[in-house]
Amino acid sequence: MIQKLTPPLRRSIKGLETFEAYRDQLTPDISEDLFRKIIKEYESFFRLMLRVGGFAELKFASDTQDQNAQGLVAKVNQFQAEAANKILFFSLWWKALDDKNAQRLLDASGDYRYWLEAIRNFKDYTLSEPEEKIINIKDVTGSTALNMLYDSITNRYTFKLTVDGEEKEMTRGEISALVRDADPDLRARAYQELFRIYEADAPSSVKSIRAWLGTGATKHQLSRFNPPSPFGTWSTTS
Question: What is the DSSP string of 111-156?
Answer without folding.
Answer: GGHHHHHHHHTTGGG---HHHHHHHHHHHHHTHHHHHHHHHHHHTT
